[in-house]
Amino acid sequence: MDDQLALRIQLFREGGQVRPEVIDFVTAELAALADEGAPVTEETAGMLTSHLMMALTRLLDGEPIEQFQTDEQVAAELADHPAAVERARRVAARAEQELGAALPGSEVNFMAMHLAVLAQRVSG
User: What does the pLDDT look like over 79-88, one tens digit per residue?
Assistant: First the structure.
């Protein structure tokens, strides 16, 4: 993890808008990706980090997360990245088990798209 992404996480921690357990969960997931060789930086994972932190916090606070229909283009792109989809599903399952936050399918797909981009940076 680079310094800029660490700063993003620190700002979430200091800002108080995201639950500490969510910050810890997302940070652990990012560390696991980095341990596997993914380039976890502000550029590659900043938006994923923010989105996942806010989505999990909203779920834990009982706020609804709007479900979006996954358009055909996203579905087609994800079909070419089954490992990213599987990883996103595992992260979502851990979020539900560890935090009690059940991410809707649209959020899982969003996460899978980011993971697919990370995977391409590793292999490319």
Answer: 889 999 999 9
Lookup: tokens for 88:
């996103």
Single-letter code of the amino acid located at 21: E
Phi, psi of 62 (to 5 degrees): 80, 15
Chain centroid, CA 74 distance in Å? 16
Amino acid at 51: H
Using an 8 Å Cβ cutoff, are 123 and 39 in contact? no
Amino acid identity at 77: E
Q: What is the pLDDT of residues 5-34, one digit of tens each?
A: 999 999 999 999 999 999 999 999 999 999
State the Cα torsion 107-45-1-35 to the nearest 10°: 60
